[in-house]
Amino acid sequence: MKLPKLVKTELDGQIAELVGSTNHQTAVIWACDCAQRVLAYFEEMYPEDDRPRLAIAAGRAWASTGVFRMADIRQASLDSHTAARDAQDYSAARSAARAAGQAVAAAHVAGHAVVAAIYAATAVRDSVPAGDLESAVTHERQWQYQHLRELHDVTPRR
After folding, report:
1. d(CA 32, CA 109)
2. Rounded to an integer, what distance in angstroms lies between the CA atom of residue 126 and that of residue 92?
3. For the chain, which residues make up each domain, given as ranges?
4. Torsion 13-133-104-102 (CA) sign
5. How far, in whole angstroms, is CA 86 from its chain's centroid?
6. In this structure, are residues 141 and 16 in contact, taking their beta carbons and an 8 Å threshold?
């Protein structure tokens, strides 16, 4: 049976709503944290390719400095998505690179943070044996939600 391209869970709506009420920098930090958790899936397959890692670093740099150059954010995102296309045969690696590309794109539009987390959960799904899919995805989405709540609770609102 072919799996859906992206995972869907009961927490999706709650996560999207919480991102919507979180300040922009916090949403980017959270997206980068989600992408960082799955980055190893990409780096294990492509240890010489640093494009997803650089995308996460660019997102974190924006969140800490507030310095925004659209050309830099766009290039980091596009580079990470190109790395994902290059990883077509390795689903978890591909989804991890996409998570990184979406995380840095959240510096431009905070809504990309939600997509970064979904790709991260998809990378987790694609990395485990078939019998463990639901449990692994549920665990990852619960971590994402709890981590976002923690960040949300200690940072100023929009």
Report:
1. 14
2. 5
3. 12-153
4. negative
5. 18
6. no
Locus of tokens 């485990």: 128
The token pair that represents 39 in the structure block: 């980055």
Q: Identity (one letter) of the amino acid at 40?
A: A
Look up the pTM and report it: 0.93
* Token digits of residue 67: 């310095």
Q: Which two tokens stand for residue 158?
A: 């929009």
**Side-chain half-sphere exposure of 146, counting CA atoms within 13 A:** 6
H/E stretch holding 100: helix 91-105
Which of 66-73's residues contact partners 24+ apart within 8 Å by CB, and which partners?
66/25, 68/107, 68/108, 70/108, 73/104, 73/105, 73/107, 73/108
Question: pLDDT tens, 40-88?
Answer: 999 999 999 999 999 999 999 999 998 879 999 999 999 999 999 999 7
Instruction: Please state, in angstroms and rounded to a whole number, the distance separating the CA atoms of residues 124 and 35.
Output: 11
